[in-house]
Known about the structure:
Oligomer: single chain
Keywords: Metal-binding, Oxidoreductase, Zinc
InterPro entries: ADH-like_C, ADH-like_N, ADH_Zn_CS, GroES-like_sf, NAD(P)-bd_dom_sf
Helix content: 25-40%
Protein name: Zinc-dependent alcohol dehydrogenase
GO molecular function: oxidoreductase activity
Order of helices and strands: EEEHEEEHEHHEHEHEHEHHHEHEHEHE
Strand content: 15-25%
Organism: Brachybacterium rhamnosum
Shape: globular
CATH architecture of the largest domain: Alpha-Beta Complex
Amino acid sequence: MRAVTWQxxxxxxxxxxxxxxxxxPGDAIVRITSTAICGSDLHLYEVLGPYMTAGDVLGHExxxxxxxxxxxxTRVRPGDRVVVPFTISCxxxxxxxxxxxxxxxxxxxxxxxxxxxxxGFSKLYGQxxxxxxxYLRVPHADYGLITVGADLPDERYLFLSDILPTAWQGVMYAxxxxxxxxxxxxxxPLGQFAARIGVHRGYRVxxxxxxxxxRDMAARHGVEVFDEGPEGIExxxxxxxxxxPDAVVDAVGMEAHGSPIARTAxxxxxxxxxxxxxxxxxxxxxxxxxxxxxxxxxxxxxxxVSLSGVYGGTASPMPLLSMFDKQIQFRMGQCxxxxxxxxxxxxxxxxxxxxxxxxxxxxxxPLEEASAAYALFQKKHDGCIKVVLxxxxx
Length: 394
């Protein structure tokens, strides 16, 4: 089959790789009909090279049709249309039964000290082949796969794989009081959904992003948008009686602008020999923290900062004096996708499209054009906000 493979930092290519096969009784093989590029894929593209191996199959936002199932699979059948959550979880362990599927004890990557295995996401999370491919093997298919209807287009459902439940969890973790205020930093795909979810839940939502097309998209959904910089911060504080919003969702993470030293460090570590690069990430790794520090400065005293953007540094400096003095609550973590499925399915199937899932994709390209698509998404050229790849089976 054809699949998007990581080759080296800043270089992905579409190659012939072996077709996936059933390896355990609970496996299923899914023929992929749509697969997206996520902001987290850019971490692999540039930053996390020391944890990647040339030929790794990328992608963790995918959906398609079940082609084959193992003898232990009883809930899904060949022909079912399904969404594949990016976290691989069993549904039966202590963590899963407490709604912490991203910490699944059955699939935890213990040799790396990491939580549940993820599709297409480096040695840190199990090095499981991902969904930017024609076919995908899905372990624990009975629990993991989300069965959906046959009538609506893929784009109604595709984002249930990651960014929609991740945004939902980020807003839930933000603990905004009824009728309260929420600021979202970053209006990439994750931030778009976080802001819209806030509006849907009746909050006054502000958002900051340097890209005009992203601000325009969010404004269409009732979000009050501001350019990056001190003027936007002051405007949000003025609109909240000088206190700042009740909560801030950081939807940027380690890709933040305004952190040139950390960016340079990322580039250096990404090109080091594997062992040296991993050691550097694990001992002196720092993130680009501009968005996180802005969140801490912006949120009101006694408010909540919810981290939905991914961070990976182990030595990132934090302003503990300000955090303690302002009595800030922090929530964060990989999304527990299956905890939110029942909340989100009715919303994506609603004819009114309350979360605007049909107003996100700006580029749909053949799988074969993945290399150009990654570069387009990373550089935000041509108004690119969200890319979906079409495997276009041969």
